Amino acid sequence: MSSVPEITAAPGAGPVPPDAEAVRADVGAGTVEPAALTALTSLQLLRRLDSGPRGLTEAQAEERLARCGENTVPSWRPVSWPRRFLGALRDPFTTVLLCLGLVSAAVASWGTACVIMTLVVVSCALRSGGEHQAGRAMAALQELVATTATVQRRSAADAPPQLRELPVDQLVVGDVVRLGPGDLVPADVRLLRANGLTVHQAALTGESAPVPKRAVDAPPGTDQDAPEPPHMCFQGSSVATGSGTGLVVATGADTRFAAAYRGPARRRGETAFDRSVHGIAWTLIRFMLLTPPLVLMANAALRGRGLETLPFAVAVAVGLTPEMLPVIVTTALARGASLLARTSGVIVKRLPALHDLGAIDVLCLDKTGTLTQDRPVVVRSAGPDGAPDPDVLHWAAVNSFWTIELAELPVPDALDEAVLTAADERGTDPLEYEGIAALPFDPMVRMSTAVIRRPGRHGTHTLVVKGAVEDVLERCGRLRTGGGETTLDEAARERLLRCAAEEADGGFRLLAVARGDRRPRLGGYTDGDVRGLTFLGFVALSDELAPSAADALRVLTERQVAVKVLTGDHPGTAARACRDLGLPPGEVVTAGRLAGLEGPALAEAVGAATVVARCTAQDKARIVAALRADGHTTGFLGDGVNDLPALQAADVGICPRGAVPVAREGADVVLAEKDLTAIERAITAGRHASGNIAAYLRITLSSNLGNVIAMLAAGLLLPFLPMLPAQVLVQNLCFDAAQLSLAFDRPTVGAARRPAVLRPRVFLRFITGFGLINAMADLATFGVLAFVAHATPGTDSPTMFHAGWFTENLLTQGMVMLLLRTGRRAAEGRVVGPVHLAVTGLAVVGLLLPVSPVAPLLAMSAPPPLYYLLLSAVLTLYGAALAFARMRYARRESGEGVPDGSPERSAEHALVGGQNA
């Protein structure tokens, strides 16, 4: 480790570097680049920043604080209510409804215009309200923890330096800070001195183990270009062990931690929700925009009607439009998101992300903290020959206990805690020995040493060493075998190293344990005394599995979600965790093997693997983007700054509450805990909401298409309009109000079994077939009305025709809601739910309105009793045709029979989700 020469001259006094004024200007403007500064020697850097080992003066610090601003990370500004509301207008159906409302107002169809505008406002208000609630919940998750830093400053240029505890936001470039165990690194700092310093920087790089840091003079050409300079500590990391003194080289928005905030965030491409709903929307919109001109031209050519049919043409176009889709989608998603927040602590920040959760078929995640907990456990202890040896664990525990006690470590190392826990279960008592001295773990030599006195051996001190296999073996000269000791020759050393490599490939983390006796000495022990040891054996550890991970992985597999483990860990470690959890790892690949692959080739390589090890942040983002481009709906679970690119590359970015703020703000879904069970519940909720949306689309599109076909046919065959615009409006209002119940429909048995993807082609095939059946029922009703008008005197008026078709339309629409909604088993069908109540209300309106006092206002007159008798026969045949067509369609789409008496389940799979849909 290079020491930094002390500079006794105060900054600004004595020789001044030629570019000092330019540097002061750069500091004031906040344009100092820390990446370039890592190439300078410590002395050059101190002079470049017009600082020194004794720190800045108060006057200098105040001046720089005024010029550069406080040391705070800029946060993303919350979206205002007006922007949320206007953003909801981007939905294609909402936009088209808005245009239809304006056209209706232009042709003086004020009733239609008012209803359409009301639907637009309600939809936008629901969506913006749901996202506003999610934003408020996110604000409650922000940890407001006041932090301070130990800063070395002087009251004047010739005054001695003093240590002060200052708020982190008061730090400036050029400050000298002290770092100790447990401290958060307050800014980007260049180490001037370090003593056994290791830092946790998982939030930045994803590395779960502490990373050693050291002070390096770093002349140009050494390791300044390394991705993780060993002489730099970055904001967002924390000190695990040791201590250090560092020079602040970047604060606030110039830190590496804040780099993710700079500039506009990269916009996520089209999500699964966009692809599905928008694909259906634009297909129908094209057809809908052609309908009014066709109606006008047909009526003009065949009936000689002019612009007086324009309101009817607009009403036909509105009748084809699933105008309640924005309201249904928003209500179903908001209801699911609210239920998740209340019951599972899952916050959905972007409502369409709930649908995307239901469509996920690939979930990418890290191993540490998700499949495993953030602590290791001892698996076994073995002697040099590989045979179980509890004595090795005993001496490892003695080392851990006395190292912690004598070195006065503020936070015990996770490996030491695991060793002590396992040894305690076997009755080991380290207090039977007397502790003399300890050399704590040093990241440079990668081992720790405890010096003890054993009972009855007062003239001997025993050194107990524990650490990395290679480093411990270098200090050993003998090998314990059986009841004796032998010389540790090169052949034995190579055999032990091969054994350690095999264990590492198998997913274990090995600690080597050695022991040596020494004569007592008066001075303190140093690393040079750790020589000539006797090798005792190994302690094998593995990551402790998350308690709920195995069950969650099993359920995800049943839900047809492929799990991809993208980790920076050793391939063997990740593979063992997967095997222990019942997830076959298959062939484990490393990111290095995928370096030359892009696009479909990369997606194919990752698709055949479960684990991709040695991943960097860029590797994770590349893999997620490739899977998504290959047609998969991807979710990514991450919690660090390094995970932000992958979070933004996925269809759904997921992070736990404990993630760093930039990850929480960049994610679509925030979990109360980093738990796969919560993700499984969120996916299930998304599929339930998507199932209800799909049910609405099936019902409304097939029914509307049949009505439009019947309207066009009747408009050409009849000497009068088949239905007046006001009647079309009232019918649509009744049907729309009833369909709102679909957003509150109960989940079905099979709704969560497959990814819920709304596929436009599947829907178009479905609505074409069932729309034609509906049109046939309407045409049959026309025949019934013609027969009744001929058979019953005084009933051949258009008002009776309008009333009869109005009643038939509402009754058939109610039947469609019952028969084409998400299927249920017979036992479930006996339970009265919101859909049953809505259909009952729809039928009551259809039967009573034409005979009520309101009927004349709508230009309707009551049909004779004969009509209702014949209509019941038409409805019976219609219901039978619907049920038969539904079963045939389900068999054809699923490619199989109807298992356990539930044909609807197969129909749901074919229409809502599944890769083969």
3D structure, described in words:
- The protein is an alpha/beta fold and 917 residues long.
- The protein has four domains: 42-71 and 146-254, Calcium-transporting ATPase, cytoplasmic transduction domain A, CATH 2.70.150.10; 272-336 and 683-824 and 832-893, Calcium-transporting ATPase, transmembrane domain (Up-down Bundle); 347-371 and 547-672, 3-Layer(aba) Sandwich (Rossmann fold), CATH 3.40.50.1000; 375-544, Calcium-transporting ATPase, cytoplasmic domain N.
- Helix content is 48%, strand content 16%.
- It is built from 30 helices and 24 strands.
- The strands form three sheets. Strands 1, 2, 3, 4, 5, 6, 7 and 8 form an eight-stranded mixed sheet that branches.
- α5 (81-87) crosses α7 (110-141), α9 (272-302) runs antiparallel to α10 and α23 packs antiparallel against α26 (798-819).
- Mean pLDDT is 78; it is low at 1-34, 137-146, 222-226, 263-267, 823-829 and 896-917.
